[in-house]
Design brief:
By secondary structure, the chain is of the alpha+beta class. The chain is built from 13 helices and nine strands. A hairpin with a 3-residue loop joins strand 7 and strand 8. The structure holds glutamine. Glutamine binds next to loops.
Length: 310
């Protein structure tokens, strides 16, 4: 077991990084996200023994955005098995921005390179079982409730609608996937599921608990129940290493070296075996779409506490 970080250290790290809160830009291509305050910063660590420490605006909710891709992948694997999922979506990093359409056009037939870029994540959302979009989103929410033991986690309907109305690029990706039989059923319904999954609201404490569940090999920390089979939890963490930070995953692996996934709301979740989950919120993003403060904070903690898995 690694040395525990104290809440005092966490608070001072966050305060030292406050100077970077206005570097970068809050996402505005989803109009509702532009309302976020770049100075709302928060961090939480959930240890595997159940201890939880935090600093900053712990109560502040933000939407999962691309962080939901890891959770949806776990559920799609449980629903369909590995062979089916990876029959439709690849396992290789793309090195392209998360919303890139380029590879779909390049490959015949289109096959998303991995489940962490939008094309792959849209295909994964399409695989979640349920007869209606609401049922599928409901199953994903129940899955998150089981992971966290927290029934209060819900979809932020304002953000979901805002994204649904402006998701022209994601619609284009879905039409490519539909053309080549990667998704089945309706484009609009799949987009409905995807935009709602991206709009699930969490705070850092809840998110760090999700990170801890992956670190705990898929077992709920309190009940000990295996929510995600160990092998699937491992697949998810491997994707976090190779593709979790979009086209900055290589430099993140070198600088931080912890499986992690970010989202355009400014959230980042990191999951470290034999340690726990770390969640950071800082809405200002760098040019790759990753939280500026989130990345810096994880780098500081990783260096100071020797957290890299490599
Ligand atoms: N990188 C992200 O967090 C992207 C998620 C966002 N909902 C989108 O599809 O554009």
């Amino acid at each position: 077991m690694k040395e525990k970080i104290t809440s005092r250290v966490l608070e001072s790290c966050l305060e030292n990084l406050r100077q970077y809160a206005l570097d970068g830009k809050v996402a505005d291509y989803i109009p509702a996200l532009s309302k976020q305050n770049p100075e709302d910063l928060a961090v939480s660590i959930y240890y595997l023994d159940g201890d939880c420490i935090h600093a900053g605006k712990v109560e502040k909710c933000f939407t999962l955005q691309s962080i939901s891709k890891v959770i949806a992948l776990a559920l799609a694997l449980i629903d369909n098995g590995e062979e089916f999922v990876f029959g439709k979506v690849g396992m290789e990093p793309s090195g392209d921005p998360f919303h890139s359409i380029y590879r779909l056009e390049q490959n015949e037939p289109s096959r998303p390179l991995n489940p962490m870029i939008n094309a792959g994540a849209l295909a994964v959302s399409n695989m979640i079982k349920g007869s209606t979009p609401d049922e599928r989103v409901g199953r994903l929410l129940s899955f998150i409730h089981e992971m966290t033991g927290d029934q209060s986690i819900e979809v932020n309907q304002e953000v979901a609608l805002s994204e649904f109305k402006s998701a022209f690029l994601n619609r284009s990706l879905l039409y490519y996937l539909k053309q080549d039989g990667v998704i089945i059923g309706s484009v609009e319904e799949t987009l409905d599921v995807y935009t709602k999954q991206c709009s699930i609201d969490v705070n850092v404490q809840q998110l760090s608990k999700i990170g801890a569940l992956f670190a705990n090999e898929g077992k709920n920390l309190q009940s000990g129940r295996q929510i995600i089979p160990k092998h699937f939890a491992r697949i998810c963490k491997t994707f976090m290493v190779t593709c979790g930070m979009y086209d900055a995953s290589g430099s993140f692996a070198i600088k931080v070296g912890i499986p992690a996934k970010s989202g355009v709301s400014g959230g980042v979740v990191a999951s470290l075996n034999s340690f726990g989950g770390i969640a950071v919120y800082g809405p200002s993003l760098d040019e790759k779409g990753n939280s500026v403060v989130g990345l810096k904070l994880l780098e500081v903690l990783s260096n100071r506490y020797d957290l890299s898995i490599f």
